[in-house]
Amino acid sequence: MVILSLDNRNVSDRSDSVLAVPFGSFGRPGPTVITLQPGETGLPEVCYLKAHFIGVIPKASLIERLPRRLSNTQMRNLVLAVNRAIDPDAPFEL
Questions:
Q1: Distance spanning both ends of the chain, measured CA to CA
Q2: 38-72 pLDDT, tens per residue?
Q3: pLDDT of 93 higher than 80
Protein backbone atom coordinates (compact mmCIF):
# COMPACT_ATOMS: atom_id res chain seq x y z
CA MET A 1 0.00 0.00 0.00
CA VAL A 2 1.07 3.56 -0.60
CA ILE A 3 0.35 6.16 2.07
CA LEU A 4 -1.08 9.16 0.25
CA SER A 5 -2.03 11.50 3.09
CA LEU A 6 0.03 14.57 3.90
CA ASP A 7 3.05 14.07 6.17
CA ASN A 8 1.51 16.43 8.76
CA ARG A 9 -1.40 14.02 9.13
CA ASN A 10 0.86 10.98 9.11
CA VAL A 11 2.95 12.15 12.06
CA SER A 12 0.27 14.04 14.00
CA ASP A 13 -0.83 12.74 17.38
CA ARG A 14 -4.23 14.31 16.67
CA SER A 15 -4.98 11.96 13.78
CA ASP A 16 -5.20 8.21 14.26
CA SER A 17 -5.50 7.32 10.57
CA VAL A 18 -3.84 7.79 7.18
CA LEU A 19 -5.08 7.75 3.59
CA ALA A 20 -3.77 4.79 1.62
CA VAL A 21 -3.99 3.27 -1.85
CA PRO A 22 -3.44 -0.49 -2.13
CA PHE A 23 -1.50 -2.23 -4.84
CA GLY A 24 -1.47 -5.78 -6.10
CA SER A 25 0.15 -8.01 -8.68
CA PHE A 26 -3.00 -8.35 -10.79
CA GLY A 27 -4.42 -5.51 -12.82
CA ARG A 28 -3.96 -3.50 -15.94
CA PRO A 29 -3.40 0.19 -16.60
CA GLY A 30 -6.50 2.36 -16.76
CA PRO A 31 -7.95 5.64 -15.56
CA THR A 32 -7.62 4.70 -11.88
CA VAL A 33 -4.77 2.17 -12.03
CA ILE A 34 -1.05 3.02 -12.08
CA THR A 35 1.58 0.48 -13.14
CA LEU A 36 4.67 0.25 -10.92
CA GLN A 37 7.80 -1.48 -12.13
CA PRO A 38 9.80 -3.82 -9.82
CA GLY A 39 12.47 -1.17 -9.12
CA GLU A 40 9.81 1.21 -7.81
CA THR A 41 8.35 -1.20 -5.26
CA GLY A 42 11.17 -3.53 -4.27
CA LEU A 43 8.99 -6.47 -5.30
CA PRO A 44 10.10 -8.86 -8.06
CA GLU A 45 7.08 -8.28 -10.35
CA VAL A 46 5.06 -5.45 -11.83
CA CYS A 47 2.41 -4.12 -9.43
CA TYR A 48 -0.70 -2.04 -9.95
CA LEU A 49 -1.76 0.82 -7.69
CA LYS A 50 -5.55 0.83 -7.53
CA ALA A 51 -6.65 4.38 -6.79
CA HIS A 52 -10.34 3.44 -6.90
CA PHE A 53 -9.73 1.55 -3.63
CA ILE A 54 -8.38 4.56 -1.68
CA GLY A 55 -9.20 4.19 1.98
CA VAL A 56 -8.65 5.33 5.53
CA ILE A 57 -6.35 3.04 7.49
CA PRO A 58 -5.92 3.23 11.28
CA LYS A 59 -2.31 4.03 12.16
CA ALA A 60 -2.43 1.25 14.76
CA SER A 61 -2.83 -1.34 11.97
CA LEU A 62 0.38 -0.26 10.22
CA ILE A 63 3.20 -2.59 11.11
CA GLU A 64 6.27 -1.53 9.22
CA ARG A 65 7.25 1.42 7.10
CA LEU A 66 9.42 0.65 4.12
CA PRO A 67 11.62 3.61 3.27
CA ARG A 68 10.52 3.84 -0.37
CA ARG A 69 9.05 6.90 -2.00
CA LEU A 70 7.27 7.20 -5.29
CA SER A 71 8.92 9.48 -7.81
CA ASN A 72 7.32 12.91 -8.14
CA THR A 73 5.92 11.84 -11.51
CA GLN A 74 4.37 8.66 -10.12
CA MET A 75 2.94 10.56 -7.12
CA ARG A 76 1.34 13.09 -9.50
CA ASN A 77 -0.04 10.19 -11.56
CA LEU A 78 -1.48 8.62 -8.41
CA VAL A 79 -3.15 11.87 -7.31
CA LEU A 80 -4.66 12.22 -10.80
CA ALA A 81 -5.89 8.61 -10.65
CA VAL A 82 -7.55 9.27 -7.26
CA ASN A 83 -9.16 12.37 -8.76
CA ARG A 84 -10.49 10.28 -11.66
CA ALA A 85 -11.86 7.73 -9.17
CA ILE A 86 -14.08 10.40 -7.59
CA ASP A 87 -14.71 12.64 -10.62
CA PRO A 88 -15.93 10.90 -13.78
CA ASP A 89 -15.27 14.08 -15.79
CA ALA A 90 -11.58 14.23 -14.84
CA PRO A 91 -9.31 14.06 -17.91
CA PHE A 92 -7.62 10.81 -18.89
CA GLU A 93 -5.30 10.07 -21.80
CA LEU A 94 -3.73 6.74 -22.64
A1: 24
A2: 878 778 899 999 999 999 999 999 887 766 778 88
A3: no
Q: What is the pTM of this model?
A: 0.83
Instruction: Write down the CATH number for the domain with range 2-86.
Output: 2.30.30.110
Residue ranges per structural domain of the chain: 2-86
**40/70 Cα distance (integer angstroms):** 7
Cβ neighbors of 19 (< 8 A, separation 6 or more) are: 3, 4, 5, 9, 54, 55, 56, 57
State the amino acid at position 93 in one-letter form. Answer: E
